[in-house]
Write a structure and sequence with these properties.
Elements (H helix, E strand, L loop, with lengths): L7 E6 L7 H12 L4 E6 L7 H11 L6 E6 L10 E6 L2 E6 L5 H6 L5 E4 L15 H14 L22 E4 L2 E9 L5 E3 L3 H6 L5 E6 L2 E7 L11 E5 L5 E5 L4 H4 L26 E6 L5
Parallel strand pairs: 1-2, 1-3, 3-5, 11-12
Antiparallel strand pairs: 4-5, 4-6, 7-8, 8-9, 8-14, 9-13, 10-11, 10-14, 12-13
Helix pairs in contact: 1-4
């Protein structure tokens, strides 16, 4: 496989910015790849929530320069889960094999090859059981950006862990969809698309129910299509259906939180994604439509 150097490393984690975790990883990269630039995607992925991190990464990488994409949302750190480098036509992905990387790989043209990260030359001399982002993934990303051959990092991986498909059920009069992400504005992104809404034969005023909470919405193109405080159901920038409140928070109105997860499926070792059950919303026609 020909060696290719990358000018960029993108970086996605659930580390937050309250501690020094992000800085430590960036420092490891800087010591090894001084001229490689790091582009931060997000460090605000809800803790341990692989589904959210996977969605954010997959929806972002098509708009980034060709790069080594370093992503760490890793509830199973220190367990039997593998660390991997995934080769695509438009860059490399580095991180845990727990379902986080595969959707992004598919967004970059599909998986060409994948390898375990086991070669001692490409990790820190001492490896903590709880901080593989710093000790394994960050140095691997730096060496790959400098042109190291992915095949030199370890044995090939034939079956990457895949998250279960998010729940979507469209039938006349009802659309049921799992929540993919909630952004900092409180917009709720669903796993469904506008096609699913059409299959459910829903239009006009609608009711979105999530657990014991509900919100009346109308279909719109953007937030300001409805008066302030009103709910809108629209197709977002990732072509997913999303629920918003003009000037407010749909997540708050629907009682939603970020404590959800999705567990990886076989083949592959167990995936430790943590968190609670996935959140699901139901969209139906409003009985008080006017």
């Amino acid at each position: 496989m020909p060696r290719t150097a990358y000018d960029w490393i993108s970086f996605t984690t659930d580390y937050g910015l309250d501690d020094g975790f992000v800085a430590a990883c960036r420092g490891v990269i800087a010591q090894r790849a001084t001229l490689v630039r790091v582009l931060d995607v997000s460090h605000a992925i809800p803790p341990q929530h692989v589904r959210h991190g996977s969605a954010v990464l997959a929806q972002t990488v098509p708009y980034l320069p060709e790069a080594v994409h370093l992503a760490v949302v890793d509830p199973g750190v220190g367990t039997s889960r593998l660390g991997v480098v995934v080769v695509t036509d438009r860059g490399l992905l580095v991180g845990p094999d727990n379902g986080l990387l595969l959707p992004a790989a598919e967004a970059l043209g599909g998986v060409r090859a994948a390898y375990q990260l086991t070669e001692p030359r490409y990790r820190l001399r001492q490896v903590s059981a709880t901080f593989h982002g710093r000790d394994i993934f960050a140095p691997a990303a730096a060496h790959l950006a400098l042109g190291a051959d992915p095949a030199d990092f370890g044995e090939p991986v034939s079956d990457l862990v895949r998250l279960p498909e998010p729940k979507v059920l469209a039938r006349p009069g009802q659309l049921v969809a799992e929540v993919l992400t909630i952004d900092r504005f409180g917009n709720v992104q669903l796993a469904a698309t506008a096609l699913d809404l059409d299959l459910a034969e829903l239009s006009g005023f609608l009711v979105v129910r999530c657990g014991a909470h509900q919100l009346v919405v109308s279909r719109g193109r953007t937030f300001a299509d409805l008066p302030p405080g009103e709910g809108v159901l629209f197709t977002d920038s990732a072509d997913q259906l999303a629920v918003a409140v003009n000037g407010g928070s749909a997540a708050a109105s629907l009682g939603l939180h970020t404590a959800w997860s999705a567990r990886g499926t076989t083949p592959g070792p167990p995936n430790y994604s943590g968190g609670s059950a996935s959140q699901v919303c139901t969209v139906t026609a409003s009985p008080t439509a006017s």
